[in-house]
């Protein structure tokens, strides 16, 4: 039998599992406080649901061998949106839901072929609320959630904000036949590609200026207004970012508005955002989300209720980012050991005593000949000895 997990999959040790559980529970506590109800979407879905109407490429989905096209979820939003528009369709809006679970994504391996990336996520979805009110609640909730994680100044958290409407404005300057090429160059921050596209001098200069137009919301919106004039979209983004200012300052989070930012999954039609921290070797994305009204509409919601937005936290990267940062060591597990003059029943009674105190305790099921032997066993397992010798 194979003794290694599949490429991309990981065995987590007990400490990692416990850290994941604690992080998930902290975030769940915030979600509940804000009135979100827990749901549990299936890990296995039909491919047409997982692809979210073409927003997610089939190559990103781990397919299953079955009589019908099935796959493992690469994210949970599509499944929750389906449930919100079917089984939960009669529940009043706003509909606030949260979920936690494993997601699976297929990607090309460095050595060729494909591997499966397995990650733990937890996040929220808000249905039935139009822009910009939903975004204001969600990003305020994001900030409240981040506050529980214990990020430090060295992590340099940065909230990167974009909007598909901003990209549409940029592309409105471009001839239709060059629109997709310009969009790709803007998203990939490829100055050379823009220069080589054969654009007019004025348009090239404007697009290169817009390519570098990223920074504080106030600065970016000022530059955009000079080019495009006043729009409701700019007003909404300004209102949203002002709402977040106090949270951001309090938690040391920089807010960066980037008109060219678009996420990997083309799931969103509206606001998009991700929270990035500095890891030991490279930036780490710990949360991402946005608005996905088109997805909710495709799931069958009536036009007056076809609104959805949400975000998710990536638990495994957060755990790795926070490892050793301000963690509080739990009380050690107790090892209850007994001498040959005591009985197993005595050990079980003492173990029950520790459990009633809220302490973790394990029982050595066979008598130890001496206390020294018991101490050696406890030391080798990093346990606190409770020795019985009646």
Verbal overview:
- By secondary structure, the protein is an alpha/beta fold.
- The chain folds into two domains: 14-322, 2-Layer Sandwich (BirA Bifunctional Protein, domain 2); 334-388.
- It is 38% helix and 22% strand.
- It is built from 14 helices and 14 strands.
- It has helices at 14-33, 47-50, 77-85, 133-147, 164-171, 179-187, 191-195, 201-211, 217-228, 232-251, 293-298, 315-322, 344-356, 371-380, and strands spanning 37-38, 44-46, 62-64, 70-72, 95-108, 114-127, 158-163, 254-257, 271-278, 283-291, 308-314, 334-338, 361-363, 384-388.
- The strands form three sheets. The chain has an eight-stranded mixed β-sheet. A three-stranded antiparallel β-sheet has the order 2-4-3.
- A hairpin with a 5-residue loop joins β5 (95-108) and β6.
- The chain starts with 13 loop residues before the first helix and ends with a strand.
- 34% of the residues are buried.
- The mean pLDDT is 88.
If strands are numbered along the chain, what order do they take across the biggest sheet?
1-5-6-11-10-9-7-8
CATH architecture of the largest domain: 2-Layer Sandwich
Instruction: Count the E strands.
Output: 14
| Helix content estimate | 25-40%
- By CATH, the topology of the largest domain is BirA Bifunctional Protein, domain 2
Q: How many domains comprise the coordinates?
A: 2
Unreliable residue runs: none
Our measurement of the CA-to-CA distance between the termini, rounded to an integer number of angstroms, reads 48 Å
What proportion strand?
Answer: 15-25%
* Helix-strand topology string: HEEHEEHEEHEHHHHHHEEEHEHEHEHE
Let me know the average pLDDT: 88
Helices, by number, come to 14
State the CATH superfamily name of the largest domain: Bira Bifunctional Protein, Domain 2
Q: What is the SS-derived class?
A: alpha/beta
What's the Cα radius of gyration?
Answer: 26 Å
From the spread of the alpha carbons, the general shape counts as elongated
The major β-sheet equals: 8 strands, mixed
What's the level 1 CATH class of the largest domain?
Alpha Beta
């Amino acid at each position: 039998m194979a003794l290694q997990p599949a490429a991309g999959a990981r065995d987590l040790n007990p400490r990692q599992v416990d850290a994941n559980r604690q992080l998930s529970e902290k975030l769940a506590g915030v979600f509940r406080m804000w009135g979100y109800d827990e749901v549990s979407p299936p890990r296995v879905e039909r491919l047409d649901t997982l692809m979210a109407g073409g927003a997610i490429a089939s190559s990103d989905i781990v397919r299953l061998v079955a009589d019908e096209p099935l796959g493992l979820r690469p994210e949970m939003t599509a499944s929750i949106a389906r449930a919100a528009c079917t089984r939960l369709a009669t529940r009043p809006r706003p509909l606030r839901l949260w979920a936690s679970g494993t997601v699976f994504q297929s990607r090309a391996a460095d050595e060729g072929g494909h591997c499966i990336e397995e990650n733990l996520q937890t996040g929220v979805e808000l249905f039935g609320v139009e822009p910009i009110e939903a975004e204001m609640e969600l990003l305020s909730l994001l900030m409240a959630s981040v506050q529980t994680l214990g990020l430090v100044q060295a992590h340099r958290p940065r909230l990167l904000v974009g909007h598909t409407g901003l990209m549409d404005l940029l592309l409105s300057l471009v001839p239709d036949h060059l629109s997709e090429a310009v969009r790709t160059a803007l998203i990939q921050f490829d100055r050379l590609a823009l220069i080589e596209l054969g654009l007019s001098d004025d348009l090239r200069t404007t697009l290169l200026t817009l390519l570098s137009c990223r920074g504080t919301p106030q600065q970016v919106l000022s530059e955009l207004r000079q080019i495009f004039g006043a729009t409701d979209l700019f007003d909404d983004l300004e209102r949203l970012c002002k709402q977040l200012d106090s949270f951001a300052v309090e938690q040391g989070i920089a807010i960066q508005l980037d008109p060219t930012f678009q996420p990997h999954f083309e799931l969103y039609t509206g606001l998009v955002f991700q929270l990035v921290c500095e890891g030991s070797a490279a930036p780490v994305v710990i949360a991402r989300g946005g608005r996905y009204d088109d997805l909710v509409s495709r799931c069958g919601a009536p036009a007056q209720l076809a609104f959805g937005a949400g975000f998710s936290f990536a638990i495994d990267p957060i755990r790795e980012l926070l490892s050793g940062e301000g963690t509080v060591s739990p009380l050690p597990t107790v090892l209850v050991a007994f001498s040959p003059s005591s009985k197993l029943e005595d050990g079980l009674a003492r173990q029950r005593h520790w459990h009633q105190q809220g302490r973790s305790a394990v029982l050595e099921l066979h008598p130890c000949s001496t206390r020294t032997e018991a101490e050696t066993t406890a030391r080798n397992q990093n346990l606190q000895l409770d020795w019985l010798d009646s």
